[in-house]
Amino acid sequence: MRRREFILALGGAAVAWPLAAVGQQVKNVRRIGVLMAVENDAEGQARIKAFQSELERLGWLDGQNVQIDYRFGVGGVDRVRDYATELIGARPDVIVANGPQALAALHQHTNAIPIVFVQVADPVETGFVASLAHPGGNITGFVSTEKAMAGKYLELLKEIAPGVTRVSVIITPDNATNALFSHVIEGVAASIGMPSTSAAVRDAAEIERTIDAFASNSNGGLIVVANPITNTYRELIAALAVRHRLPTIYQYRYFITAGGLASYGPDVNDLFRRSASYVDRILKGEKPGDLPVQLPTKFELVINLKTAKSLGLTISREFLLRADELIE
Fold this sequence. Notes:
The strands form two sheets. The chain has a seven-stranded mixed β-sheet with strand order 7-6-8-9-10-11-12, with helices on both faces. Strands 2-1-3-4-5 form a five-stranded parallel β-sheet, sandwiched between helices. It contains 13 helices and twelve strands. About 45% of the residues lie in helices and about 20% in strands. It folds into two domains: about 30-145 and about 270-295, Rossmann fold; about 145-265 and about 300-325, Response regulator (Rossmann fold, 3-Layer(aba) Sandwich), CATH 3.40.50.2300. The longest helix has 26 residues, at about 1-25. It has helices at about 1-25, 40-55, 75-90, 100-110, 150-160, 175-190, 205-215, 230, 235-245, 255, 270-285, 305-310, 315-320, and strands at about 30-35, 65-70, 95-100, 115-120, 140-145, 165-170, 195-200, 220-225, 250, 260-265, 300-305, 325. Strand 6 (about 165-170), helix 6 (about 175-190) and strand 7 (about 195-200) form a beta-alpha-beta unit. The chain is α/β, with parallel strands linked by helices.
């Protein structure tokens, strides 16, 4: 009997040990929420790949010691808010917010869960952080570009298309970052005596009406500020610009691969890669308010030569040599 009891006890221990190990493993899994401001398309997947690759390099493997929940918040403010509520309700250890709209939705619902933002132009002026060096609170992250750079887009437009004598800035309503950018661009335009307007668009029909109306007079050019609406309809905007022969400058490369003329801005995938380092540090115990907001370190000038030809533009050799990428 003693031998039988010994064997049963040994078998019970063999069963208990793996279960205990599994329980410990589940307990140690950390949770990350990611609220994206783009569709789950090639652009969105490229950002995810950059983020996850760096996380893996830092030792965080999705499905093993970390669980990553993604939400793609394209489709209006209400949908973004709903996804923000879902992610917060899951009680993650940290949330990555892509863009000011996603950050605003999360900020409205929590001041406790750490948030790392990516692609927010001026988090101080929009009230998300106290300062870049000492953000305080539960938010830190990676700035897409400073508002002072907004004037650069007008400079590039005049350089690539010297015949442009008036400009319209395409933004979306209820977006503080877009408003800041358009205000700076209009100020620069006024300083050189160029008439300028800002046009807030909400959907495809409004985009078409706005660009059609602006194109009714000659020598116009567009500056398109990135936001969930212009991102979603970037192919439409590029097609309308070509149809009306409107030279157009954009903020990011993905507008140019969609048929846009030229862009100048930070490498978004690099920002996502760098955001993983802050997620790592927060998961290891650091507070987001102690991590300084960081500026972009990689910028790229991208030109679509096919679009330039369609617009009848002859771009100088010197300008082309400055480009980081030429798309044909």
